Amino acid sequence: MKNVLTDALSGVKSVAVGGHIRPDGDCVGSCMGLLNYLSDNYKNISVDLYLEPIPKAYKYVGHTEQIISDSSKDKVYDLFIALDCGDRERLGQFEKYFDMAAKTLCIDHHISNQAFADMNEIRPEASSTAEILFDLMEPEKINIDTANCLYMGIICDTGCFKHSNTSEHTMAAAGKLLSKGVNQAEMMDKVFYEKTFMQNQLLGRCLLNSYLTLDHKCIVCVASAQLLNEFGAVSSDLEGVIDQLRITKGVEVAVLITENNEGGCKISMRSCAYADVAAVAQHFGGGGHVRAAGASCSQCAADILDELLAKIKEQLTSDD
To answer: Is 316:300 a contact under the CB 8 Å cutoff?
Structure first.
């Protein structure tokens, strides 16, 4: 059976691995998992991993000191592998390595992905990019370090298996990774649930600042730049806020708008049953999944909120 990863690696001596800007758990888990897998099984290939600085929680998997977080080095690779990226621009400053590489491969599960690489493995039905990578790797060659990374990717994008993207295949893959020695309970606590006191306080303020709209089917929270500065927080400290908003009784769409000090903002959206938030995100130049999507805007929350809610309203009424 054809394997795009094996085919892409054939004959190459140097590989660059990169993920999307503001890396989340699936992005970090996928990238670190592939780095470990290649380093362990392809001794004749040199591998560099490029990612922006990652949240402290994701360093649980270990070896993250190997991540390169700047693009000052000019280097041409035989192969660039883009992971968990819906489009090439999401590679941020590391797009230049993608452009210069002799050949490129994209492995992703975003429905908005238009297959931008030379070779592509796009599976929108997969829970995570980590799940796709598991399928592409030889099971007997997956060590505990790789297993830890892939398991982290899966739990982060499935919300510890509670989101609707969790399939029978997802659970089977997770079970096989557990057999490698993954400490499930510890990882879920350290990576997914554990928060600092400041993060818990910030969550509380976000919930207090949230409001219901669109016949109480939509809940919105704006995390202003002033709020983040007050807590000395960064956007990654808001991890989990959108999921807490989503489980509000009677709500179909949850929206978290995070402002930055440059006057722009990031939109994060989740839906429960029928609203296509990926379609909403695409209107603002973003993308993602039907139930989880987002976008970045150069305007502040006040400037885009009316237009955003109008697009969400279309999704809420299309099911009537």
So the answer is: no
Six-digit token string for 258: 């995070």
Among 1, 8, 6, which Cα is nearest to 105's? 8
Phi and psi at 306, nearest 5°, equal -60, -45
Q: What's the confidence (pLDDT) of residue 319?
A: 52
3-state secondary structure 45-62: CEEEEECCCCCHHHHHHC
| Four-CA torsion 302, 304, 309, 311, nearest 10 degrees | 180
pLDDT tens-digit profile of 261-310? 999 999 999 999 999 999 999 999 998 889 999 999 999 999 999 999 99
Q: How many residues does the chain have?
A: 320
Separation in Å, CA 100 to CA 13, 16, 75, 95, 143: 15, 11, 8, 9, 31
Give bridge partners of residue 29 from the DSSP assignment. Answer: none
Model pTM? 0.91
